[in-house]
Amino acid sequence: MQNEGAVMRSRTSMLTILALTISLAAPGFTVFCVAASGSASPHNAILSGVVRDSQGVPQMGAIIQLLTADATTVATAFTDDHGRYIIQAVLPGSYQLRATAAFFLPASRQNVRLLAGAQAIVNLTMSTMGEAANWLPAQKRRAEEPVDDWKWTLRSSANRPLLRLADDDILVSSSADNAHKSSVRGEVSVTSGDGGFGQGGIHQILLLDRTIENGDGAVLRADVSGSRSPYPVSPSAEIVAGYERRSPFGGSTRMVTSFQSHPELTDGASAGAQIMRMASTEEFKFGDTIVLDAGSLLQAERMEFTRLSSEPFVRLEVHPSDGLLIEYRFASGRDLQSSDDLDNLKPTLRLLTDGSGRPLSTKGSHHEVSISHKFGNRAIQLAAYTDHLDNVAINGSGVLDAGDLASIAAILADPTTGRFALASPNYSGHGVGISLVQPITPSLAAWFGYDRGTAMESDLDPTSPVAGAVKGISTHNTYAASASLRGKILRTGTTVRTEYRWQPPRTLTQVNAFNAPAQDAYFGIYVRQRLWCGHLIPGGIDAVIEATNLLEQGYQPVVASDGHLVFLAQAPRAIQGGFAFNF
User: Fold this and answer.
1) Are residues 427 and 404 in contact, defined by beta-carbon separation less than 8 angstroms?
2) Is 156 found in the same domain as 82?
3) Does 302 lie in the same domain as 201?
4) Which pLDDT value is given to residue 70?
5) What whole-number distance in Å separates Cα of residue 208 and Cα of residue 581?
6) What's the domain range around 106?
7) Which of its termini does the chain have fewer beta carbons within 10 Å around, N or C?
């Protein structure tokens, strides 16, 4: 038996060398070698594809290996002068695919599923050993863009990925097949309406996104508001610029900088606020099992005084098996908890000040352990967390006069929109949560969530003065339930995101605050609809509308110093709409 094994190994080696020789000598002819896969049968599978470099050039003579889960070689093939390969008569099952070539880093694909009597197409891209990593713009992925193999992503309510799912009925294809193309995309938007805190007036927004063939790119977003009556102030402005650099070994380096100027904000004694932020993250991938994500947000906030702060985070993912994800997260701020949070190019305004115009720290800590699992075409996540939050904002709606502002120690008001924010005492809490995602169509998914944890609740009656409102607010163990629909309706081209997040009416802060965007409360909706596409504007014109707490739920009345009512609310109603011109 040992002699027979040696003979078989010798024959296999000779056949491999012969196949490589014929592949190099005969252009357009692909030779493959199959080991231990049996003879051709209608019950066997076929695997084929194309191997390219990062510039999209086909690679001739690359060695293609089909491996089992324990790394045993099942079949070997070589690419022809067009970079093509084919492996026939393979037993159905799940395999690994690997491509190697001189002066290139190996490329591999896990979980290649081969079905009986079917042909799977798997394209691979190889990077040279001295090649720089690809650069991609830090722009949020649109729902209609199939940029990788995954068809669905379970995301927390803060829009962070929890578990990526592949459609069982779709054969595996390579994300590298979507080669980077040189492109320039621009968008000019004009919006107006009943804006939220720091979002009043007419806004002109410019978005520029440029990508070249090797993946290098940049993104810039600028938002300038117009004048607002009856309180004419200088225009507010927000500028954001960012980039992403991906590693050929997996992972990425990302950086986003932003500057915000809000001359309309006041604490009664001083007016005008500026915020500068610089966020950087680094993601490392160790094989297909471990992902380590870490970074920090540095920011300088100024009103009457300046405060500098740093908010680091660490996230660790472990994938013990297909469809199972275990994750640990530590975060010291709500705005940056993973690299994916840098997709949001619209900065969140969380500024709070004391009575002397000194910005207050909103830093905290969040520890969370979660388990996500795939069940068919749906996924579920269970999580447990502990939180500590400093100076949490209690939002309100209504115009306050100078007397009210002077009588409240920690308040920041936006008189142009009639919104204000009070600083509540620090608090700690803990809780659990469950999330479920269910695909409805290839571009639309339903999401459900339930959280049980600590939040701030009001014990005030309608005759309570706003000056003492914070004293009537305390922590309680409560719950929140959410349901949302997110994605795109392909037939009409409508992008939609609608959500109803219910909490008891007297709840003034969010349950599981580190996993819920600040604007999510009760009924909210975002709709973007293509209206026209012509020769003058090839990208077309879109109508956009966004509403927060559309039904004005959870409002709690308190009395201002002159006797009129103002309201405390987890998220006061805000409605904005406009048009976006794409080019």
Assistant:
1) no
2) no
3) yes
4) 76
5) 12
6) 2-129
7) N
Backbone phi and psi for residue 145, each to the nearest 5 degrees, phi listed first: -95, 110
Q: Which helix (H) or strand (E) holds 351?
A: none
pLDDT above 60 (res 171): no
Say if residues 425 and 454 touch (Cβ distance below 8 Å).
Answer: no
Task: Please indicate, yes or no, whether residues 70 and 166 belong to a single structural domain of this protein.
Answer: no
Distance in angstroms (rounded) separating the CA atoms of residues 12 and 271? 80
Measured torsion, CA atoms of residues 171, 176, 178, 179, in degrees rounded to the nearest 10 = -160
Q: Is residue 363 part of a domain?
A: yes
Q: What is the DSSP letter of 406?
A: H
The CATH number of whichever domain residue 534 belongs to comes to 2.40.160
Nearest CA among 55, 327, 292 for reference residue 180 = 55
Angle, CA 270 vertex, CA 266 and CA 272 arms, to 5°: 60
Query: Do 52 and 184 belong together in one domain?
Result: no
Q: Whats the size of the chain, residue-wise?
A: 583
Average pLDDT, the chain: 79
The answer to whether residue 372 is domain-embedded is yes
Nearest to 514 by CA among 383, 334, 342, 331: 334
Given a cut of 80, whether residue 20 has pLDDT beyond it is no
> What's the total number of domains in the chain?
2
**pTM across the whole model:** 0.69
- Which amino acid is present at 256? V
- Three-state DSSP at 10 gives helix
